[in-house]
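Thread: Newbie trying to understand structure tokens

Hi all, I'm a second-year student working on a class project, and my supervisor (Dr. K.) asked me to get a predicted structure for one chain before our next meeting. I've only ever worked with sequences, so writing a 3D structure as a token string is new to me. If someone could post the tokens and maybe explain what I'm looking at, I'd be very grateful. Here's the chain:
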Amino acid sequence: MFKFAAILLTLIASVHMAHAGQTGSMSKREIHTLSAEEKDRLNTLLLEAAKKGDVVEIKRLLDEGAEIDAMDELGRTPLILATSFEHYEAMKALLARFANANARSDNGDTALMLAAQYGFVEAISLLVQYGEADMNLLDANWDTAEAIAISLGQIDVIDEIARVNAEMNKLTDEMAEMNLHKKKRRFDHMVIRCEDELLGFKRPNNHDDKDDDLGGSERPSLTIDW
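---
Reply by user tm_fold:
Sure, no problem. This is what the structure looks like when written as tokens:
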């Protein structure tokens, strides 16, 4: 589910950037040639827009060349600011442009840690599902986001983190089962090829694991002791 959500967000971002390229936004070459002063100005405006939750301005400034992970005087990125002020649409806009969900402010806090501290349940979901935020990172006090929520009695956040963890564990188990199934099929194919070589049969490339019709005669079975 999480990987699908990330892929979907990536596709949305690609479509948006393609559309932006057709509507007069700056090219990569033009952005690269921005002066340091102009880039600082755009970054400052982006940080202000994130703090206000101004999605239209955020997109415009990013198109103009503002840096997605620009930092203010306290080391806070636009995503950290948008999270701190509970601007969920702004968070989505920033995550769609691949904002770093694990960026830290000068005091060591990530957006996820702040969401846990303030009790912003929806922010937790956005950061983990779309930003792949690391829930195991530690703050200056050696606490994870979950430990912060527990210490502050943020019950809803604790429940949401537990739900997200359960879904991630389920996804991990499903992927492990798929990999095991693929390995078993690969092993079965290897055994069949060995049998064919020993018995002198040649299978077509599109073999589908079923016994082939070898001129009306069945392929002799071969038992291999391991």
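A couple of things are worth pointing out once you decode it. The chain is about 60% helix and 0% strand. Confidence is low (pLDDT under 50) at residues 209-217, 219-224. Feel free to ask follow-ups in this thread.
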